C-alpha cells in the first residue's frame, strides 16, 4: 500500500449515492432541479433587494447576505455533485479538495453568523424599536458583514493547513460527493487528535456559539412580546420572526445531525451521512428564498412589482 507523505498528496475519489450507482443519471434530475431552484431563487432575492428602494433596510440587507452565502454554498458543490451523477467524474486532487472544503465550511460558518445577525435585528426591532435606526446603521451593517467573513476565514485557515500536515495511506474514497473536513481527516494514517479537536472547536466556536445567542435573543424577544397588552400587536411581533425561526431550524438541524453522525456514528449505514449531507447543503439554499417570499409581504410586493414591470416592458415592445 502506498503511503502519501506530506510532500505527495493523494487524489481522492468522491462518492455519489452508495449502492445506487446505476441510477446516478436519474438521481441527477432532482439534484439539478434543486440547484436551479436554489440559484434562481437566491439571485432573485439579491436582484429585488438591490433594485427596490423600499427594501433598503437592515432586515433586507441581512437577507441579502443570507442569499449570498446560499449561492456560494451551491456553487461550491455544484460541479462535483453533478459531475459525479452525470459523467461519473469522481477524482479530485488534494489541493482542489482542500479548496472546496474551505469554501463549503466558510459559507456554512458565514450563514450561521448571518442568522445570528438576523436574530439581533429582530431583537432590536421588537425589544428596542425606537433605537432601531440608530443601532443598525449602514456602517454597522457593513462592519457586521466584514466580521462575518473575517471570523470564518480566521477559524478555517488553520483547519485546512493542519490537513496538509497529515499522511494518507488508507483508502482514498470519500463518503460524499464533495470534500468535508471530518471525511477527509478519517482517511489519514497519521494521528488526527489535534485535527479532530480543532474541528470540534471550530464548530462549537461558530455554529455552537451562534445558536446559543440566537436562542438567547428569542428568549428575550418572547419575554418582551408577552409584555405587550394588545393581542394584535403580539401576533404581529411573532409573525415578524416566523421566517427567521424557520430558516434557523432548516440550517441547524441538518448541520448538527451531520456533525454527530460523522463524529459518533461509526456503525450507521453508509447512505445515512450521505443523505444528511445532501439535505444539509441543499435544503437551506432552496427553502430560504421560498420562506422569505411567502412570509414577507414586502418581498412579495417587490417581486410582484418586478414581474409587472417586466411584463409591461415586454408588451410595450410587442404592441407599440
Automatic annotation (TrEMBL):
GO terms for molecular function: G protein-coupled receptor activity; olfactory receptor activity. One of its GO terms (cellular component) is plasma membrane. It is found in: Cell membrane; Membrane. Coiled coil: none annotated. Residues 41-292 form the G-protein coupled receptors family 1 profile domain. InterPro entries: GPCR_Rhodpsn, GPCR_Rhodpsn_7TM, Olfact_rcpt, OR51/52/56-like. It holds the Pfam family 7tm_4. Putative odorant or sperm cell receptor. Belongs to the G-protein coupled receptor 1 family. This is Olfactory receptor. It comes from Camelus ferus.
